[in-house]
Fold this sequence. Notes:
Elements: H1 3-21, H2 26-51, H3 57-77, H4 87-105, H5 112-128, H6 130-137, H7 139-142, H8 147-162, H9 168-189, H10 195-229, H11 244-247, H12 267-279, H13 282-292
Helix pairs in contact: 1-2, 1-8, 1-12, 2-3, 2-5, 2-6, 2-12, 3-4, 3-5, 3-6, 4-5, 6-13, 8-9, 8-10, 9-10, 10-12, 10-13
Transmembrane segments: 31-48, 60-78, 84-104, 116-135, 147-166, 173-190, 196-217, 265-288
Protein name: Ammonia permease
Keywords: Membrane, Transmembrane, Transmembrane helix
Amino acid sequence: MRTKTFAAASLVAVAALVASSYIGPDRAGSWAIWAVVCACILVFAWGYPRLVGMPAPLPVSTVIALAGIGAATAATVAPMPSPLQWMGAFGAVGVILVFVTQLVRGTGQRQRLESTLGGCAGVLVVVFGSGWVAADRLTPNATNGSMMLLSGLSIASAVLVSAIPWPERLTAPLGLLAAILVGGVASVLVADVPVIPAVVVGAVVGSVVVCFHVLVVSEAQVLRAGSFSTVAPGVPGAPAGAPDEAAGTPGSSPMGATLAPSGVLGIWGAIAVGVASVIASGSLVYYVERLLLH
């Protein structure tokens, strides 16, 4: 299980985002956080298709990266007060290109439907990352306000609690509660952030982090089960008389996904999900701040 890797990736990503939000002046700060968001998008774009076991990951990785970087760039240069006006367009183009990549592969190729659905989900995650750039351009953050810091602290608290080696039924609600409490307590210590918006942001980002951590845990369990159930004939421990078709090949799941050599979630997969838990919160943070603070 790669819980520690997930936590480390999430913490590095959120620390870089918060630090870049304090770089000024205003325009320089926007491009600084743009660079961090793009770096996170590239990491996610590389690891995510390999996490879900796409047979042809490179084209999908390219589409995900282009859609995310395009949306982040548009959020940086779009006129206020609507920095996310092009986010939907880049998401739509990304989805279309995902379909094109699978059409180009040709009829009869493995997992075309799964690759299409997974690629569309990846595009959705990265275009949401543009929300961090947009949030940094809002008035409370453009003047080096503390809302970005509070968002980062809430994410970090949820990540740290989720990393505790306890059952998920305990760490999931505790992680969400920690994000809410940290957001509320930190807002009391910072004069320019009201309590209610800080608590709402904590609840939103905490929910995202907890959900992605559950994905890490469940994916690792599925891959581990697949590695035991798909042992090739002749390998000690394989069911006697299991046919070749049912047995599959070592290191592959029943759905055909390529597994890590250890039969569990690979390190790139855990890093991708950890980064995704941060960038996917971007648009949610932006809209909560826009509604409650701006």
